[in-house]
């Protein structure tokens, strides 16, 4: 084993060329797998240390005032690295800083081989929850005594490196060989390490009996299932007694189990609905424990009825939570066996056939694609599902995965060598054998509209997060089309001149080359590209030219324009668009015609040997994809259909063809009624937010639920909201509706800052507009002179929603600003969250295309769009936001609502009557801040 020198630096910032300097160096030297030396020193940077860095590291200006300058230790530090690998957690950062400082004192920069433990962790630990040093040390249980101090970080990085090198020794020869082929395109110099491992493996048989090698790729073998439990004839009442009684099996098996009376009640309502073949809507308030409450009757029904029960969730993370947390607990408690399966859409599963093909072609691979291939190779030695949600890919790795997902596969011949190993086929087989199948709303909707069955047959269904069903179904029954997707499809098919698919089949089969040349393929392909460019550029200009009252700016910074078929027919420019769409459709048809000739030839001509080219299998999928573009263009531009809402979105500051086209049905109640609720024996819908003012009427109407065969139940929360929460509304804020928006934002920011002082941060601020969030962030940055609080903002601070949430929980004094996606599904229990601020009541903008179309329809029906649509949507959203604060019986907190319409407007009662009864204080800001201080 070679010598590795692990380094970590603390610095005043990120960029040495802009004046940032090192303030601490930590070095650990490894040889033969053991730590043989360490080195640590503070450095006087000769500049002030930003408060944020002091906050993070604990290093103050006093600490470094007597420390040596870098020039004093430079030579000593450089000597430590002689004849060794340089190792760091994000090598470009540490090595970049070191070399900048070495050069500035006249010494040579370091040029040894290097290893980046971030990159190596991504490859060798594909299922880690994150790749920051703190996350990895927690995941691998490496002791990390003093995070953000150089020597402690270097020690942990050294331990991580040893762990990773051990992990490398568990990989088979084939995987190591493939990684070696990619090594030149990675940051880390792994050539010698991989070469040595291959030499060791050359003379050893396959060491792991949980792997198989197929066509040069190492795959994890299927596990053998445990012997089934002894079946039991227990009644449902007895099962509930056994589980829910004060000293029952739930109490014994779960840490921190809280008795929740509503949980048993919910289980009983669901089982009764199944038995009486009725549909049910159940609102289970926060704290009910609804996942277990529905899993118990679902499992029992599947067992005694010898049938399948399907559970559908909105988000894939809830599916994963059910499968990994709730169901294992349940299985350990049930006296009988249940078989479970999780099934998602094809786009979630890796296609081994596609991956094998991409593994061979490396000519155009950039860094992200090389890294993604390396991650997938190692993951294949670990995964049994092939479900991409198990791992995190780099940003453009997501795009690469679309190329190698089962969705991109087209038809797979059951005789294909990969068919028996297809992850998607395995998951479908498993679902056929399961009696509890977990899926998501999107696949559920695909299944009820599709000509062929995606889910195995079932008669009983539980829909969790049911307040999302309408939106998901509408998206699903609609369509979206954009320039990039069509462009990508055309480029993938390609021309005879380039290296793409059409060139490959043309080179393999002279007769195809002849057909393409005779039919002038390249000419029509270029013609199609030109028409596509012209159409989308024209659409971009068309939206820009519309009156500002017809175009709105949405949360993601895109302009939206609703297409009105009646108005469009009388508009000269709209007629030009229709002509352009017609021309583009004709051009695409010409391409389909040429591909159809090739397809006919390939099936009828004996000279074609299918065995020699997988590429021929792409003909039919490519024809289908091109035809789908024509169909979508016709629906969007050429067919008048009053039941659809159509709109265009453009990236205002994006490319001139960054145009996205959408359409959805205005209402989906009839479709759901006919194809779901009347088709199945029993459908149970549940969520924490289904009622408005204690009534289910709104959700029933939106989803098409009949009253005649419906059970309605509201399960109260077990929490004592009246003693756990205070709701406060200021009466002295400027009214933002009358041109005072800037004053309103300023007042909001002052309140945020004052409350944060009392709650020590631990605050979530929910906005309804991204624009208002950005302005508030800037003002808060100005107000916070001493960087007292860590300010984390969606869309400004980098990272996903769950990453921002984790960062928020990691800092002692933090404020988290969020928009749309933070109103729900964010769970921050305990003292991490003490204050929730709702800036505005969450009404949708009245000129949002979907809202506009629905309003128009309601007016035509003689109904009031505000009362029937805007208000119920806002109340349900408000309840979602309110539910972020109290997540257990010991939580306490303040809900501060900056929008006094909740008190003053006639409709305000709809909001306050839809949440639990809690004390409400309506007073001036000064009094509210004082009361918050006293109460907390």
From TrEMBL:
One of its GO terms (molecular function) is 5'-3' DNA helicase activity. Pfam families: DEAD, Helicase_C_2, RNase_T. 3'-5' exonuclease. GO terms for biological process: DNA replication. Keywords: ATP-binding, Exonuclease, Helicase, Hydrolase, Nuclease, Nucleotide-binding. Its cofactor is [4Fe-4S] cluster. It comes from the Bacteria. Coiled coil: none annotated. HAMAP family: DinG_exonucl. The gene is dinG. This is 3'-5' exonuclease DinG. The keyword ATP-binding applies. Signal peptide: none annotated. It comes from Aquibacillus halophilus. InterPro entries: ATP-dep_Helicase_C (IPR006555), DEAD/DEAH_box_helicase_dom (IPR011545), DinG (IPR006310), DinG/Rad3-like (IPR045028), DnaQ (IPR006054), Helic_SF1/SF2_ATP-bd_DinG/Rad3 (IPR014013), Helicase_ATP-bd (IPR014001), P-loop_NTPase (IPR027417). ATP binds at residues 284-291. Its EC number is 3.1.-.-. A motif (DEAH box) lies at residues 464-467. Residues 249-512, 271-490 form the Helicase ATP-binding domain. Belongs to the helicase family. DinG subfamily. Type 2 sub-subfamily. It catalyses: ATP + H2O = ADP + phosphate + H(+).
